[in-house]
Task: structure prediction
Amino acid sequence: MRLPPSPPFLKKQNGKAMDKILNKLRDIELRYRELEGLLSDPQVVSKQGLYQKYAKEHADLTELVDAIRSYEKVKTSLAQNQELLAESDEELKALAKEEMPQLQEQLAALEEKIKVLLLPKDPNDDKNVFLEIRAGTGGDEAGLFAGDLFRMYARYAESQGWKVEIVSSSPAGGMGGFKEIIAQIEGRGAYSRLKYESGTHRVQRVPVTEAQGRIHTSAVTVAIMPEAEDVEVTIDPNDLRIDVYRSTGHGGQSVNTTDSAVRITHIPTGLVVTCQDEKSQLKNKAKALKVLRSRLLDAMVQKQNAEQAQARKSQVGSGDRSERIRTYNFPQGRVTDHRINLTRYDLDSFINGNIGAMIDALASHHWTEMLGKQGR
Result:
């Protein structure tokens, strides 16, 4: 079995670091080929659970293996062009010389891609998420902005082909805002894209109720939590207090004649989750337990992030709920992310769900930071 030759950029690494990366690439290539064999094995194919496990592992490695193989192809082309430069045929030499800059650029880009793909992956990246938005300072205006942010994320999720389902909501006033809204967003990679959104979002604009046209500043907090699996967070039923009550809609009007709404209190932590969007008490209880499990997992993640942040002083992706991460200034049509000092002047488009470029910038900053730490 031919193993991929050592990419030149590995030679820039020192001693043990180079050996470690080289061994990792070899192990990845061996495992990838082993998985290809397993996925064509009739005995594996007949066992659905095992086949799915191997298929996922194969899919997870495909991008890295493809990048390594592409790197080798470009490297070979570059070497061939170098040889052509020594030929006597002037036309061939000119063609080779013309291609060199493009090939060198491709090689550098693939090198960076391989470095990023070799970084440890966040185990939560492929998970669904729970999105929690709460109005903070600013009264009705904060509630209205909470509604704006929810619609922004819902439209972005729609553009990604993800499913959005409201778990619970608490309306604010009669203008379409929310004191709090919780939604589940289902889709591959949802957490990997939205995890940078946790924190305090500040809005500066003239409220519709402001007669004198003065700009007000309000705040809303956003929490992005990966959906927890049963094996990750075990909840002792004895630690729960479950209350049921009658669901109510806008204006306090009864929307249900049975006690279908559910409030679950996790006694050790004091966390409280309510759900009343379903007509079935069992469905509301199941939803509330999902949210509670994810909040408990999120609390564990936040604790780990806080411990890491003390050591690395990293802002992007820290998920600190008290941290002001972004300002939306409507009079100036700008949105500024304070963690990476990036300002965009496309607020109307941004608030309508076109947030991908900002997320890309945050992800790029995060990976650059990690690469810098890996190189030290």
User: Anything to note?
Assistant: The first strand starts at residue 129 and ends at 135. The first helix runs from residue 15 to 39.
